[in-house]
Amino acid sequence: MDKDKEEFLSEFGDDYGYPLGPKTIDEIRATEFKRLAHDAVYLDHAGATLYSELQMEAVFKDLTSNVYGNPHSQSDSSMATSEVIRECRQQVLDYCNASAKEYKCIFTSGATSALKLVGEAFPWSNQSCFMYTMENHNSVIGIREYALSAGAAAAAVDVEQIVDLKTLYTEPKTLFKVSQHAIQRRNSNRFLEACIGNTYHLFAFPSECNFSGVKFNLGLVKAVKEHSQELFKSSMVTRGNWLVLIDAAKGSATEPLDLSKYPADFVVISFYKMFGYPTGLGALVVRNEAAKLMKKTYFSGGTVAASIADMDFVKHRDGIEELFEDGTASFLSIASISHGFRILNDLTTPSISRHTSSLARYLRRMLLSLKHENGADVCVLYGGDNKVSVNMGPTVSFNLKRLDGSWFGYREVEKLASLSGIQLRTGCFCNPGACAKYLGLSHLELLSNVEAGHICWDDFDIVNGKPTGAVRVSFGYMSTFEEAKRFVDFITSSFVTLPSPLRHGFHLREREIDSMKGQERANEAVVSYLKSIAVYPIKSCAGFSVDSWPLSSTGLLHDREWLLKSPSGEILTQKKVPEMSRIRTSIDLSRSLLFVGSSGCKTELQIPLESSSYACGREEIDLHGYRYEVHCYSHEVNSWFTKAIGRPCTLWRSSATNRPWKRRGGASMCRETESPLNFVNEAQFLLISEASVSDLNDRLRARAEISELSRAQAVEVSAMRFRPNLVISGGEPYSEDFWRRVQIGNNYFESLGGCNRCQMINFDQQSEQIQKTSEPLATLASYRRMKGRILFGILLQYEKSDMANKEVNSWLQVGEAVHPEMR
Asked: Which of 164, 305, 309, 402 makes the best surface tag, with the fewest CB within 10 Å?
């Protein structure tokens, strides 16, 4: 056992690893999660926890040993299904310590569906109010639409927990202070002051915030229900009846509610967040008295006792579950949850809570201890000082800062983590209120971010110098110390600037690169030559090498002039369709033909380059912020490509007279250019240096030796792995980084800077089966990372003056001298 784990166990040994359970954490991982044995680290249990392999074996055995029929019948198989559903309802109530006399369990298609059901059926009136804490999932906030549409008001609130000093030493009493945000109302002429006794309001909060891990004090339930006038005395609503909704989708995974102590009216849970399987199933635990108030409009099979088709008559079923479960319940999924509950019950939820909390506390402490070489903090945690929380759940949310105090983008963290085999989540996690609260984003900034093009799940992680989201790590019942430690090591090696002797691996810091620029300027440029030329006619398909090739206004003639598009309009690339790399291309200029072949097709496709081969007129598509005019091809051509890649697609060609329309909102990865482009990602040309590739391979071999990989396992890449147009030989490694412009033969090009690499270079396309690895991108990330971008190779375009005077018959020739001009 290493020293770090010994120190961890000395503090958390009583809580970590289920020391008194039927299995230790090491035994659980070895027998029930063998799929995680291959260097995989999964840290997104707040998004979805993992199912146990033994759990799935039990599910499979159950479903293959029993016959479950539709429960809406009286057959033996149907009755057996009904009994299983009844038992599962009771398991859910037992998990929440809820009496069947007071509560019912309604199965839904998920937690969101359960919340939607509450919003649809709640007895809203124009005197009602929907009040919710800022820290709420979008699925809770969405209830606001039902309230506002019914003429009710809505308001977000902050809740602060305070201590009554008068009773501190006699009878400790928890008090809450509610601070209301702006009132939302669709009709400003409706007032709430005249609320009467039969008016109903809804108050919603999560048992645990899925953004920060803050756990709310459940005493808030009784405070709202029994002391609303005192609690909301500074609010707009002081009278009426308050019902309480708890979103326990996140919190119930490690600490279930006790409804005997905290009698909420509605509780929402999600089973895949608790034990991984099944997905698409949740539950609404509803108090019987609250269920009687809910108004059901739609009826369906299973929810009615009788109906008449040609007259306005329907008699609903009396049972609460039957009334609200539209259609046939997902009975096979429901039958599966008993096997998940068995795991939680065997380990016990208190043990699970202590185990996961020990890992979260360890991680928070380690992240807060990280310092840059100048003493500046590396990590900013969110939620730890929130006064509403009694404690924190097994979720750690944070952002990272550079040496100079600027922020690392959370997408950069996520991409590098993925390269290191670590799965986590970034963004706002569908919790806009908590995100804005903890990141300090004003309404003006939030709206400005949207105007700048930022939406959920995009790459706009820093806007106007401030993060738009965070990094989230969350633990589950099967998480280990080794996973937490590996994550800390990853953050340290990738984002912490340490004194030079302590720096890990080959990581080349930005300050070191800046110093290299000065050295390069002082050196005389070494003469190199053009080693190879490659043309890629169809975007993301294989290209072909030539000794010489003509130039055009868009780059190499016919380079990336075609692309494949799915029926839904998605532009297909190797990132999602690796089989595209198996499509071979070549062009015979003398015959004016594009030849296309594939191992999946017996015949070779011949496509004339003349416009007469088009099957339709001009259309428009969007790509990389540009709008293109394009032409499509015949059904026979499209069928060939569909067979070649194994999915429906169509071939499109950029118009011969095309000049992409102006870029829409969004930042370019390189300097803006007015040069015409075909379907390239960034620029007309990509240039790669053999000297730089050789240095990369030296680093790949060294990393393999450190990792004790065999020579056969070590990765070695060629220049063509990066899909360059131009490969040069000669010169120093990475000297191309400092080129301002370059002359190749009689042609001049301007450097647009480094090419930002993505995981596409990790596909090994030379093997029999296309394989994705972490290399070479992981090694490049260790020393070629600049402000969130992993750079390798440079982007080129014709200089404007050269474009204006360029002759039609300009060619590039292998062997021509390369003369760079340094910056």
From this structure: 309
Q: Is the distance from CB of 236 to CB of 278 less than 8 angstroms?
A: no
Which pLDDT tens digit goes with each residue over 713-747? 567 999 999 999 999 999 999 999 999 999 999 99
How far CA 408 is from CA of 212, 302, 367, 398, 666, in Å, comes to 19, 53, 15, 11, 19
Whether residue 499 has a cis bond before it, omega within 30° of 0? no
Q: What is the DSSP string of 146-173?
A: HHHHTT-EEEEEEEEEEE-GGGTTTS--
Q: Does residue 766 lie in a domain region? A: yes
Percentage of the chain modeled with pLDDT above 90: 68
**Residue positions annotated with a catalytic role:** 430
pLDDT greater than 50 at residue 665:
no
Whole-model pTM? 0.85
- Tell me, what CATH number does 463's domain have? 3.90.1150.10
Binned at pLDDT 50, 70 and 90, residue 509 comes out as very low
| Residue after which a domain boundary falls, among 309, 327, 345 | 345
pLDDT band at 708; cut points 50, 70, 90: low
Tokens of 73: 């019948």
Check whether residue 658 and residue 556 sit in a common domain.
yes
**Are 157 and 223 spatial neighbours (Cβ–Cβ below 8 Å)?**
no
Cβ count within 10 A of residue 303: 20
In a domain, 704, yes or no: yes
User: In this structure, are residues 431 and 136 in contact, taking their beta carbons and an 8 Å threshold?
Assistant: yes
User: CB-based contacts of 723: which residues, under 8 Å, 6+ apart?
Assistant: 534, 536, 543, 686, 760
- pLDDT by residue (tens digit) across 132-159? 999 999 999 999 999 999 999 999 999 9
pLDDT digits (tens, 9 = 90+) for 776-804: 999 999 899 988 889 999 999 977 545 54
Q: Which of 307, 324, 345 marks a domain boundary?
A: 345
Return the exposure string of 590-615: e unless at least 16 CB atoms fall within 10 Å of the residue's CB, then b: eeebbbbbbeeeeeebebebeeebbe
Handedness of CA 659, 665, 669, 673 (dihedral sign): positive
Region 588-606: what's the mean pLDDT? 94
Q: What angle do CA 543, 545, 551 make, to 5 degrees?
A: 90
Same domain flag for 482 and 598: no
Q: Quick one: which H or E segment has residue 143?
A: helix 143-149
The answer on 486 and 368 residing in a single domain is yes
Residue with the larger pLDDT of the pair 1 and 104: 104
Question: Rounded to whole angstroms, how far apart are CA atoms 451 and 449?
Answer: 5
Return all residues near 650 (Cβ < 8 A) that are at least 6 apart. Answer: 564, 565, 567, 632, 633, 638, 641
Same domain, 215 and 320: yes
| Alpha carbon of residue 628 to chain centroid | 29
How far is Cα 154 from Cα 185, in angstroms, rounded to an integer?
A: 7
> Do 104 and 241 sit in the same domain of this protein?
yes
Q: Are residues 154 and 223 in the same domain?
A: yes
Answer whether residue 296 shows pLDDT above 80: yes
Phi, psi of 101 (to 5 degrees): -75, -25
Mean pLDDT for 44-52 is 97
pLDDT value at 191 more than 70: no
Looking at the structure, tell me whether residues 289 and 361 fall in a common domain. Answer: no
Q: Is residue 521 part of a domain?
A: no
- Burial class of residue 516 (count of CB atoms within 10 Å of its CB; 0-12, 13-18, 19+): middle
Same domain, 487 and 543: no
User: Between residues 569 and 546, which one has the greater pLDDT?
Assistant: 546
Find all residues with CB under 8 Å of 658, minimum gap 6, and list them.
628, 629, 630, 676
- Specify if 652 maps to a domain: yes
CA dihedral 665, 670, 674, 677 (to 10 degrees): -90
With H, G, I as helix, E, B as strand and everything else as coil, classify residue 227: coil
Residue 730 in contact with residue 526, Cβ under 8 Å? yes
Amino acid 502: pLDDT: 43
DSSP state of 452: T
What pLDDT does 670 receive? Answer: 41
Domain span including residue 809: 685-822
What's the number of domains the chain is made of? 4
